[in-house]
């Protein structure tokens, strides 16, 4: 028996593009350009896994193209009205619509331990948090792609030496190959955002485990960029490292001058002292 979804009135069952009202507090901007939706669906390889999770599908403009791919599609959506719309208009999603908060939900309840890709037109207000959750679940997420605010997408894919290079850049590149794909103008959304959007793709590295203490690596990167204008010698001062270590040339650099590999090297230098300090 087909599941009936509450919150969806009969007057909205005609695929009217205005059927679901965009909600500002959820950061909703519904993509209306079919060509761009198809391009985003094409950003995943669909290789090495058989399941895909779309975050925030809204009215399913991207979903319809994902359903054409050789993958088992699930969607996770917090907006009750969108969930109802999807349930009535996308029968192929029966049993695969999860009315949950992606940031708080245990994804093993959807996929068990199976690997899966993540894709979506991500709400700007939680996009950074989405990336951090993907990083935490990287052992199960070999591919990730989707649309962000352009500046955020560029920051994730940025290389050292740039003002945009920061915490997200370093941490993401530790585990994934990053690629900025294309820019999307505000005019293809309803309602249009005030800024451009950018689509990126992350492909997990073959070796995505760190040769250093992961928690310490995250701590060092965050501490360094919290005072990005200072040299590492000063921004990491609260770690109480010995003077002979702090004389190392790497401590004379600023965080944006270090690549991800160099931050790993820095962590390995600090690690013996940090572990000793915690005992």
From TrEMBL:
Domain Ribosomal RNA adenine methylase transferase N-terminal, residue spans: 36-206
Residues that hold S-adenosyl-L-methionine according to the record: 29, 31, 56, 77, 101, 121
InterPro entries: KsgA/Erm, rRNA_Ade_diMease-like_C, rRNA_Ade_methylase_Trfase_N, rRNA_adenine_dimethylase, SAM-dependent_MTases_sf
Positions of region (Disordered): 1-21
Molecular-function GO term, any one: 16S rRNA (adenine(1518)-N(6)/adenine(1519)-N(6))-dimethyltransferase activity
Location in or out of the cell: Cytoplasm
EC number(s) on file: 2.1.1.182
First-tier enzyme category under EC: transferase
Top-level division of the source organism's lineage: Bacteria
Catalytic reactions on record: adenosine(1518)/adenosine(1519) in 16S rRNA + 4 S-adenosyl-L-methionine = N(6)-dimethyladenosine(1518)/N(6)-dimethyladenosine(1519) in 16S rRNA + 4 S-adenosyl-L-homocysteine + 4 H(+)
Main location (coarse class): cytoplasm
SMART domains per UniProt: rADc
Keyword terms, alphabetized: Cytoplasm, Methyltransferase, RNA-binding, rRNA processing, S-adenosyl-L-methionine, Transferase
Gene3D superfamilies: Ribosomal RNA adenine dimethylase-like, domain 2 (1.10.8.100), Vaccinia Virus protein VP39 (3.40.50.150)
NCBIfam families xref list: ksgA
Family the entry assigns: Belongs to the class I-like SAM-binding methyltransferase superfamily. rRNA adenine N(6)-methyltransferase family. RsmA subfamily.
Function text: Specifically dimethylates two adjacent adenosines (A1518 and A1519) in the loop of a conserved hairpin near the 3'-end of 16S rRNA in the 30S particle. May play a critical role in biogenesis of 30S subunits.
PANTHER family in the record: DIMETHYLADENOSINE TRANSFERASE, DIMETHYLADENOSINE TRANSFERASE-RELATED
Record's protein name: Ribosomal RNA small subunit methyltransferase A
Source organism of the structure: Salegentibacter chungangensis
Gene of this entry: rsmA
């Amino acid at each position: 028996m087909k599941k009936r979804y509450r919150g969806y009135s009969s007057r909205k069952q005609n695929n009217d593009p205005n059927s679901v009202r965009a909600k500002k507090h959820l950061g909703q901007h519904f993509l209306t350009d079919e060509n761009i939706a198809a391009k985003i669906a094409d950003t995943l390889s669909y290789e090495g896994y058989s399941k895909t999770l779309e975050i925030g599908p809204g009215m399913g403009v991207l979903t319809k193209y994902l359903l054409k791919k050789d993958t088992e599609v699930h969607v996770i959506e917090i907006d009750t009205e969108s969930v109802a719309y999807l349930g009535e208009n996308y029968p192929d999603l029966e049993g695969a619509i999860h009315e949950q908060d992606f940031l708080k939900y245990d994804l093993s309840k959807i996929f068990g331990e199976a690997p899966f890709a993540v894709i979506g037109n991500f709400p700007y207000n939680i996009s950074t948090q989405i990336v951090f959750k993907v990083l935490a679940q990287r052992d199960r997420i070999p591919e990730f792609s989707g649309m962000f605010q352009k500046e955020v997408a560029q920051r994730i894919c940025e290389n050292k030496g740039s003002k945009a290079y920061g915490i997200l850049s370093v941490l993401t590149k530790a585990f994934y190959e990053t690629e900025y794909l294309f820019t999307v103008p505000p005019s293809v959304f309803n309602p249009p955002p005030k800024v451009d959007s950018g689509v990126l793709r992350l492909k997990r590295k073959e070796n995505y485990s760190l040769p250093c203490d992961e928690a310490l690596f995250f701590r060092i990167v965050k501490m360094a960029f919290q005072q990005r204008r200072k040299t590492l010698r000063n921004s990491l001062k609260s770690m109480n490292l010995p003077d002979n270590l702090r004389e190392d040339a790497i401590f004379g650099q600023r965080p944006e001058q270090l690549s991800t590999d160099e931050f790993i090297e820095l962590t390995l230098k600090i690690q013996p002292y940090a572990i000793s300090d915690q005992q």
